[in-house]
Amino acid sequence: MDNELLVSDVEGLSDLSEDQVVELFHYRQEFKRTLTGFGSFATSYSFISVTTGIFTMFGYVMATGGPAGIWVWPIAALGQLMVAFLYSDIAGRIPISGYSYQWITRIANPAVGWFAGWLGFAYFMLVVAAVNAGLSPVIAVIFGISPSTRNLIVIGVVLIILQFLINAFNTRIASLFNNFGVFTELIGLVLLGVLLLIVGLSHGHPVSTLFQHPNVKGAFFPAFIASFLFPLYTIVGFETAANMAEETHNAHRTVPKTVILSVVSAGIVGMFFLIAAVMGMPSLHGVLKSATPLPYIVDSNLGSTIGTVFLVVVAISIFVCGLVCMMSGARLVYAMSRDNRFFMSTTFRYVSKRFDTPFPALVLLTAIGIVVTLFSNSLAILVGTTAVMPTLTYLLTILAYFVAVRRGNLPDSLGGFSLGRWATPVGILAVLWLVIGLLILTVPKEFHAIDLWSLGIFLIGGLIYLFGFRKTTESTL
């Protein structure tokens, strides 16, 4: 952009109006601010989607770490909460769309900021397809469709198109879908968890069940560590509220709270339901044999009717998760494009005045999601790769935060959330956690195929930057 925004320009300006905050960063307000506090929370919580993660990964956890594997969840939730605290601190200082791309570019290094944007875009290219690949079998069961490969692909494509239509023609409508999905998930998981706990305890299942592990070859610890793929895939996307900041009322105050609340809520609800599901297992052997472990547990304890209701709740939650993934991805494309740091920027920076949505960016995410659905035959690879991308992005962002603090480039809070003197210890804990997370996702030989995919994405991004965007990132925004 022609006008540079100096970090010093944003200090001590807590009384600015919402539109003036955007103008402060040399942009103009293009979106209507339709998201309330709950709507902001819902975007982050839906992206995390405890239901999606547990339904997709429960069988994997039982096969690797067994019932004891569920205890990776609170460890990961606490680690991600440290990340969420730092993200909330930055979101209160720079409340505009583009999250890590914008933040790193402005407070540390434009080239690293572009690379964070590339990692985010690569993540969204894969995660839309990954989420709907997990939903397709559920839809097939609910409607009695044969779960053949061809049918599942067709269902996945139809789901992506439906999510596009909802997203493209009105953000408020998409937000209403999202709010309903969050309400359904929270109520559904809590009620179902209570029922499973009651039945499990009435059947005399001992509490020691929660600490059992399968008879795996070799030591238990490596299998337990492998279970971390589950929360590292699931407890991500809490920064979505920050990515929707320009569509949120009083964003510099609202977004930091909703980012933190989404992680806390997901951590508590997820742990409660995992305990309930394990206590409700008829047998570990039966769960490991079942192609759909959670429906098997629900059907065995509560009957097929409640099992069907549970599947409907699962379907709604996963669908809304995919909806929000596409919504957030489109905002990142828009944010990079308005800075001329994305392909065909003139096209993808466009915001429809009629629908108040980044229509071309949504079309792009939809097209890519369909292509990935058609040609990817491994949900495991998609899941693993979509765990690596955000973890690395989080690490880059927090390191950039410390660089900005050291250089004195960190803007003052605009009157919202600030960690103050707690930023350093919280940030150190977050960095340690993220480094451990990356090691977990890359070192075990079971994840080496994921490493190759991730490495390919990094190399492609490096080439695109060198030959396409190096000159555009030679100055700050």
Key phrases:
mainly alpha; 71% helix; 477 residues; disordered N terminus; Amino acid/polyamine transporter I
Q: Count the helices. How many? A: 20
- For the termini, the CA-CA separation is 6 Å
If you consult CATH, what is the topology? Amino acid/polyamine transporter I
Number of strands: 0
Structural class: mainly alpha
Largest sheet: none
Q: CATH first level: which class?
A: Mainly Alpha
Strand content: under 5%
Protein name: Amino acid permease
Pfam families: AA_permease_2
Subcellular location: Membrane
InterPro entries: AA/rel_permease1
Task: Write up this protein.
- It is built from 20 helices and no strands.
- With about 475 residues, it is mainly alpha-helical.
- It has one domain: Amino acid/polyamine transporter I.
- Helix 4 packs antiparallel against helix 12 (about 250-280), helix 6 runs antiparallel to helix 15 and helix 8 packs parallel to helix 12 (about 250-280).
- The longest helix is centred in the last third of the chain and has 34 residues, at about 305-335.
- It starts with 17 loop residues before the first helix and ends in an 8-residue tail after the last helix.
- Keywords: Membrane, Transmembrane, Transmembrane helix, Transport.
- Its main location: membrane.
- It is a multi-pass membrane protein.
- It is found in: Membrane.
- GO terms for molecular function: transmembrane transporter activity.
